[in-house]
Amino acid sequence: MAHYPLNHHLRPAYRALAGAAGAFLILFGVLAIAATWGDPFFHRGHDWVLGLRANPAGAWLATLVGLGILAAVLLGGNVHHHLTVVLGWGLLGVAMVLLALMQTGANILNASMVNVIVLTLIGLVVLTAGLYGKVGSAEAGRTESAQAHNPV
Rg of the chain's alpha carbons, rounded to an integer? Predict the structure, then answer.
């Protein structure tokens, strides 16, 4: 079973970073939707927004994922913990799939290497926020801390 720190003292900072990552995805998505308006959904043109390649499919996906991250951050608690762990791993997985498909005809999100790097970094930020975002009672936190410092 994985061990997730309970009531970590940097939890608010990680949560703020995840919120910033979600806000960036929303900003990119909305600007990319505006820039690619009227293009076919899986268009593989030369549209760039905020230094990232864009098409309508990638723009809508980024907006929806950003909204999911922002919703998790705003809800907080263990909902934040669970959703950001799942979304973080999901973003990392999508980045690796995009990397594998980048120079093929299957690159339906019109990704470039810059997109993969940025998506990987955002995925790592969101995943880290989730790993350190678990919340519990003060008593459970003290018990966990005692067990961590005095292993049996």
Answer: 18
- Count of CB atoms situated within 10 Å of the CB of 111: 24
pLDDT, one tens digit per residue, over 32-48 is 999 999 999 999 988 99
* Spatial CB neighbours of 27, under 8 Å, sequence gap ≥ 6: 50, 66
**18 near 69, Cβ under 8 Å?**
yes
Residue 24 confidence (pLDDT):
97
DSSP of 3-55, one letter per residue? ---BS-TTHHHHHHHHHHHHHHHHHHHHHHHHHTTTS-TT--S-EEETTEEE-
What does the block give as tokens for 2?
Answer: 């994985």
Pairing of strands 52-54, 47-49: antiparallel
